[in-house]
């Protein structure tokens, strides 16, 4: 089995939420329990921090990893989805798991895992846990995939739980009300384990976290504003993630020096390889991309765009079927020229239908056969002092990077 064959097996043979949607979602964590039993419980062999939230959990995970690396700790990092390379999901000190390690893990466990009908996400979580245990990491930052309570990562017993914020996303699976979504995210709060909440929200959301923490005998902390702390991840929305990260380091109480905190935040991209967060792809032509893909993420993007001087905005936009598409489109800037497209995944929303809905909501633009076609047309129409923005879906951004 070579690496390409291994990836083909993982991507095409296993149910994969990112590509196919709800059909790949498992409503319990039984499979990961069975998988970890087969692997002799690797998740119990390393310390961890567990992160959930609607937005910002990926950035927060990478910020924490960068700081802990600067402090000299061997730091595992599990995140999803990946942008270009499957191995982005599993890293130690910013270095991706090797192709051979991926091959050997699948080869060794394929037969037993097929007996329990593993999903793609369950497979990758098990792989990460096994890799971190074998590598004897000092700590691993583990990001949930979807929700919290029923997420495959929720088998761990972390040193600290972190919930970044609550917004509308995956409402077909997590519930249509913020309270329902909050209860699912609160599912990562463990007994006698401190939890950090990144954003103070309306009382009913905060009370859900407080009550859950009280019932679990867990101390709860809310992040605080930290001014004038710089980070190489651009976009003003990162300030919230910086605040969450600093509070998490404080609550972890591992005597991390301030110089490691500041240096870690200044070198997140260098230390961890994170891409796609308000990333400037080019200055001439001026091209920016961002993976924000739900209502909260799009609000942050439009707010940031208003602070940039440009002549004309060319917006390459695509989304997926299970989003609240109309509500997202309502948030988009009206003055832009849109290049509607669909990423090359089953879950992508049809570009022509996207154009049709957008026209009814007073957005102007054309539909294109592919992300690449949309991008090439935007480049062709670009003039000096214009801005090209790429977003709406992680998968659209991934096809450009």
Descriptive overview:
The protein contains 17 helices and 14 strands. With 401 residues, it is an alpha/beta fold. It has two domains: 3-272, Mur-like, catalytic domain (UDP-N-acetylmuramoyl-L-alanine:D-glutamate ligase); 279-400, Protein-Tyrosine Phosphatase, Chain A (Alpha-Beta Complex). The strands form two sheets. Strands 4-3-2-5-1-6-7-8 form an eight-stranded mixed β-sheet, sandwiched between helices. A six-stranded mixed β-sheet has the order 9-10-14-11-12-13. Helix 3 packs parallel to helix 6, helix 4 packs across helix 11 (258-266) and helix 8 (178-185) packs parallel to helix 9. The longest helix is centred in the first third of the chain and has 17 residues, at 99-115. The two termini are 28 Å apart. The mean pLDDT is 94.
Summarize the helices and strands and which ones pair or pack.
Layout: H1 3-13, H2 17-20, H3 30-38, E1 48-52, H4 57-70, E2 75-78, E3 90-92, E4 95-96, H5 99-115, H6 120-135, E5 139-143, E6 160-163, H7 171-174, H8 178-185, E7 195-197, H9 203-215, E8 220-222, H10 238-252, H11 258-266, H12 268-272, E9 279-283, E10 286-289, H13 295-305, E11 313-317, H14 325-331, E12 337-340, H15 351-360, E13 364-367, H16 371-381, E14 387-391, H17 394-400
Helix pairs in contact: 3-6, 4-10, 4-11, 8-9
